[in-house]
Design goal:
The chain has 426 residues and is α+β, with helices and mostly antiparallel strands. The protein has helices at residues 10-19, 35-41, 44-63, 65-74, 103-114, 121-129, 137-146, 149-154, 217-231, 243-246, 248-256, 268-271, 289-322, 406-425; strands at residues 82-85, 88-93, 96-100, 132-133, 161-162, 177-183, 195-201, 207-212, 236-238, 325-326, 336-340, 354-365, 368-373, 382-386, 390-392. Strands 14-13-12-11-15 form a five-stranded antiparallel β-sheet. Strands 1-2-3-4 form a four-stranded mixed β-sheet. Helix 5 packs across helix 6 and helix 5 (103-114) crosses helix 7. 18% of the residues are buried. Residues 374-405 are annotated as: Disordered.
Length: 426
């Protein structure tokens, strides 16, 4: 018992000293016998809200056609494990009386439990089942949770990642495909260089590194022109979505140099490669015919072997990579999606992991889509994304599997925007 403990807290010790002059016996009284005392410690506002809720629930039960029938039957005879007490309909589940929620109030109850902490389906179900009974509860929770805007934008995609490895064709010769990217920012040199512009030949893995002061398209184009003067233009340039590679100037440069078409140059006799550039280089006279023929023959044999090795490695890479992947969802033009946040500013770890809603406007390749922003929220107006960086924006309700109830989503989007603003402020 409390009074026999060796270490008593100060308040209990004072009680012990005060009660020493009395003869008394301490008896334990269970909590279910102390309801009249509990009422004195309850917040009267909370009690008023609870009473108002019960009145609302009772009225809703009376107006629910299905529950009204059950109530009328219970007045005549028992029906399954339903119980009607004090104007409220309950369902007895293993000795626990749960309030039966009419259809009109189901969404309100589920949302209240879920939004208390934006819990998972399992946790939300546990919370609801503590006090309430709703038929087909789990499916109804799944539908509501899948359309919760803060959850759509904040949660990672579950299960295996989508999308299998689709190797890029390396061609059968060098200098056909370039991979380009920037490294940095690094420590600035005395001349102001703090980035490295890297150009990698996809076939040979040969690398060219150029120091740059910025990552803008002007410097990129200047270095590609330097490369062009020696090796000519590639057939394809592969880059990320960096501003330097999506600018109008870079697109104009590619169009002028015909980066996406095939052309031939006499300099192939020297390099064994079609050097593609706007001018026709006259290099036939540089090498004797006999040397050229032998050079081409030996080089072609080496390249065929290199191509075979590359294909073997790609097949093995695909096999290993695809073990932990699954097929990507296929999106149609008009689908609403959320896209993964790829740029994080300082102190932004608590921001939603996805942005949206966006609408799919075009499919540009294998598992790649163009999307446009819907509404006024964070994120680029138009961009491209891959299927593994996207997920459906809410549950599919329509016959075509793409109607997500725009009015409800728009309302929840505004709530998510307010939450995002709050996170940034904090």
């Amino acid at each position: 018992m409390t009074m026999k403990k060796k270490d008593l807290v100060t308040r209990v010790a004072r009680w012990a000293l005060l009660l020493e002059e009395f003869d008394y016996v301490l008896e334990h009284r269970p909590g279910n016998s102390m309801k009249h005392c509990d009422a004195l410690s309850r917040n009267p506002i909370v009690m008023s809200i609870k009473n108002a809720f019960l009145e609302k629930l009772s009225l809703a039960q009376q107006n629910d056609a299905h529950l009204k029938v059950i109530t009328e039957v219970l007045k005549i005879k028992p029906y399954k494990n339903f119980v009607f007490e004090k104007s409220l309909l309950y369902k007895d589940e293993d000795g626990t009386k749960l309030l039966v929620i009419p259809e009109k109030m189901e969404e309100e109850i589920i949302k209240s439990a879920h939004e208390n902490g934006h819990f998972s389906v399992r946790k939300t179900k546990e919370l609801v089942q503590r006090e309430y009974w709703i038929s087909g509860l789990e499916e109804k929770i799944k539908k509501i949770v899948s359309n919760c805007v803060p959850c759509i934008l904040a949660e990672r995609k579950s299960g295996k990642q989508e999308g299998f490895l689709n190797p890029i064709d390396k061609g059968d010769r060098p200098l056909q495909t370039y991979h380009v990217d920037h490294l940095g920012p690094l420590s600035q040199t005395k001349k102001g260089y703090k980035y490295i512009f890297a150009v990698i030949d996809a076939f040979t893995k040969f690398v060219w590194l150029y120091p740059t002061k910025t990552t803008n398209s002007e410097e990129v184009i200047r270095h590609l022109k330097d490369q062009q003067s020696i090796f000519g233009n590639p057939k394809t340039i592969i880059s990320d979505r960096g501003a330097a590679f999506t600018s109008a100037k870079f697109e104009e440069y590619c169009a002028e140099e015909k980066i996406k078409s095939i052309a031939r140059s006499p300099s192939e006799l020297f390099f064994g490669v079609t050097i593609r550039r706007t001018e026709d280089l006259k290099l036939k006279e540089m090498i004797e015919e006999e040397f050229v023929n032998q050079f081409i023959e030996d080089r072609q044999s080496l390249r065929e072997e290199a191509k075979r090795k590359i294909e073997e490695i790609q097949i093995e890479n695909c096999r290993t990579y695809n073990k932990k992947r699954k097929s990507s969802l296929k999106y149609q033009v008009g689908d609403l999606v959320a896209i993964k946040r790829t740029q994080f500013a300082p102190c932004s770890k608590l921001l939603p992991k996805f942005l949206g809603p966006y609408r799919v406007t075009n499919r540009t390749g294998i598992d790649r889509y163009e999307v446009e922003k819907i509404g006024n929220h964070e994120g680029p107006k138009n961009t491209t994304s891959s299927a593994d960086q996207m997920k459906p924006f809410g549950a599919n309700d329509g016959e075509d599997g793409r109607d997500v109830g725009w009015k409800g989503i728009a309302t929840r989007t505004r709530a998510a925007q307010a939450r995002t603003s709050e996170l940034r402020t904090n």
